């Protein structure tokens, strides 16, 4: 009995501790060469997004890479208010009759005609300094998705602290418009963090990043010992929203 009470208190503490932070899912679909992706697009636009909206999950972003990247990929960003919302949405799709009806053609398509083989998904918890995502302004056409790997958990934690204590303010000052910042809790490349920025166009993006390095606060923190060796690798992708994206 005492053990059950302890577990219950621990779960309550976990839920309370993270209730103010959003959770994010980021899916990457690698599309099959030579196959039409319209089936996947229709599924996401007409079946998945409406079903998630019924569970009060909004601001779902759907993106493709800028340029002619090969293989072609589709990126799906889903923000959840809590980890419990993620679970309820995941389970709810299995019982949603409207979702089943609208997604029927997608579910019944033969393997030979399916637009992708697998999708990769990752889960993130938002940073303390940006606990909720920010929906970008209308007219945003360029999204920059960046992943920073740390060589171990301590390095990653120190980089997250660097963002929370200083870099968010620098980003705001120079016009690097944040969408979300997340520490990965499940998925490849761990330990790592991922964040997304939004810009009107590539010209704004380039001009505002040029302001980052000379910023006085960055010059102050760049060489501090506590932030040494925090990032071992950086991955950067430029994305544009699909016509049915909600971001």
UniProtKB/TrEMBL annotation:
Pfam families: NIPSNAP. Transmembrane segments: none annotated. Gene3D superfamilies: 3.30.70.100. It comes from the Bacteria. Residues 24-105, 143-246 form the NIPSNAP domain. This is NIPSNAP family protein. It comes from Gaetbulibacter aquiaggeris.
């Amino acid at each position: 009995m005492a053990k059950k009470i302890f577990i219950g208190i621990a779960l309550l503490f976990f839920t309370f501790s993270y209730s103010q932070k959003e959770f994010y899912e980021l899916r990457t679909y690698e599309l099959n060469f030579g196959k039409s992706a319209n089936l996947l697009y229709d599924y996401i636009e007409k079946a998945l997004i409406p079903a998630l909206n019924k569970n009060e999950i909004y601001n779902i972003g759907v993106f493709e890479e800028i340029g002619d990247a090969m293989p072609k990929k589709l990126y799906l960003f889903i923000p959840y208010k809590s980890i419990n919302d993620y679970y309820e949405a995941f389970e709810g799709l299995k019982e949603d009759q409207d979702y089943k009806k609208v997604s029927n053609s997608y579910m019944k398509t033969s393997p030979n005609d399916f637009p992708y083989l697998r999708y990769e998904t990752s889960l993130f918890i938002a940073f303390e300094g940006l606990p909720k995502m920010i929906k970008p302004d209308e007219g945003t056409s360029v999204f920059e998705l960046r992943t920073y790997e740390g060589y171990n958990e301590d390095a990653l934690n120190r980089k997250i602290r660097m963002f929370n204590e200083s870099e968010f303010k620098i980003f705001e000052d120079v016009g690097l418009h944040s969408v979300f910042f997340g520490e990965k809790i499940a998925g490849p490349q761990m330990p790592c963090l991922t964040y997304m920025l939004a810009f009107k166009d590539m010209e704004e993006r380039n001009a505002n990043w040029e302001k980052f390095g000379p910023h006085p606060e960055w010059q102050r923190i760049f060489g501090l010992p506590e932030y040494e060796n925090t990032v071992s690798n950086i991955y950067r992708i430029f994305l544009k929203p699909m016509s049915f994206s909600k971001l």
